[in-house]
Structures are given as structure tokens and as C-alpha cells.
Amino acid sequence: MKPTMRVLLGAAALACSANGAAGQGATITPQLGVYIPASSFYELRDQANTVKLEKEGTLALGLAVETDWLRGSLAYATGATLNEHGVGDRQDIGNGSVLAAAADVVLRPLPRILVQPYLLAGVGLKNVNYDPDADATDLFPEDLTEFAGHFGLGADLFLGGIGLAAEVSDFISRDPDGSWKQHDAFATVGLKFRL
Fold it and tell me: Three-class SS of residue 11?
């Protein structure tokens, strides 16, 4: 297993174990949805043209463990396509995966009236791994792990011990210029089980 994968899985396990000790009413939520890359992976500008390496969305899987106001989560997407946009053309130049782990505070600003809205705010790690084609440009790292802020919103509905949750969250990290403009979002639905 790659060191970056061990770090991500270890951080998620630590967040989940902290959640288990934080309070009562623990839940576990397997999730299914889509990965939404909201920004270019890399952009190179010169006087003549602009080359953008962009990611396309794909199927995403997730898992969240939560108690009271703490939550640990994992999000994974594979099969994302990397495209190169140059002057007047676009071509697929590779594919890859995204694995992200987060530890969040869960805020519930409104009382539950059948549906409970919630907000997420926390920190995490994001690993982006690409497998470029042999003739692809060499402008970006093929394996990158970086610190990320994690923010999201969602709502859940419980009927007995099983609930349904829908949420959108965003992992925000630094782009190649050092600005906090790199967005990797996940929109998911999941079944929420009380432990």
C-alpha cells in the first residue's frame, strides 16, 4: 500500500475512533454519488496560448461515521478522465482517481421537522493520482497528496433506525500557483444506520 494511502486511511480511522468516543447516537453511512471536479487540475499560460488539464466527473463512493457533532469520512472516485485543452482542440490524455479523508464538525442550525439539515466544516487530506498516456504532457505530478479544507451541506431523514442522507461537500486545496482555488466536490446519497 502506498504511504499516501496509509496516511489517508489512518487519518480517517483516527477521526472515526474519536467520533465513537464523542457521544451517543453513532451512525454509519455508506454513500454513492458523483465526483465533481470544479476546477482545472493544472493550467499553464504563456504569451501564445493557454493549456488546461481538466478532470471529468465520475462515479464516487463514500463512507461516513458520525456521533453528535463529530464526523469522520472517506470519499473515493476512480475512472476520472484527464483532458488537455489547447488552442482549438481537446484530447483525453489519461485517467485517475481521487481519495479524500476528512474530520469534521457537524452543525445542525435548524431543529428536525422530519428532515434535519446540517453543515460540515473540517480538515482533511486529498490524494490525486493520475495515469497519463505515454504521449501525455509532463506538466503535472502523477501522484499528489495535499492538505485540504472540507466544507459541505446536507440533510437526513430517519424512519426508525434507518435514515436517508443527501449531501454535497467540497475539498478545497492549493492550486499550482499556491492559491486556495482547487475544488474537488462530491454529491452523494446514502443510507444512514444507527449503531
Answer: helix
Tell me the C-alpha distance between 12 and 182, whole Å.
21
| 22, 97, 110, 168, 176 from 85: Cα distances, Å | 48, 20, 44, 28, 17
C-alpha cell at 9: 486511511
Phi, psi at 131, each rounded to 5°: -115, 90
Note the pTM of the prediction, 2 decimals. Answer: 0.76
Residue 58: closest CA among 78, 30, 38 = 78
CA distances for 51 relative to 39, 83, 84, angstroms: 14, 10, 7
Nearest to 119 by CA among 161, 159, 156, 77: 156
Cell numbers found for residue 185: 466536490
Give the chain's end-to-end CA distance (angstroms, integer): 30
Q: Of 68, 72, 46, 184, nearest to 116 (Cα)?
A: 68
69: Cβ–Cβ under 8 A, 6 or more apart, which residues?
22, 23, 105, 106, 107
Give the separation between CA 96 and CA 184, rounded to whole angstroms.
13
Span 120-171, pLDDT tens digits: 999 999 998 877 664 555 555 667 789 999 999 999 999 887 999 999 999 9
Of 22, 62, 5, nearest to 187 by C-alpha is: 62
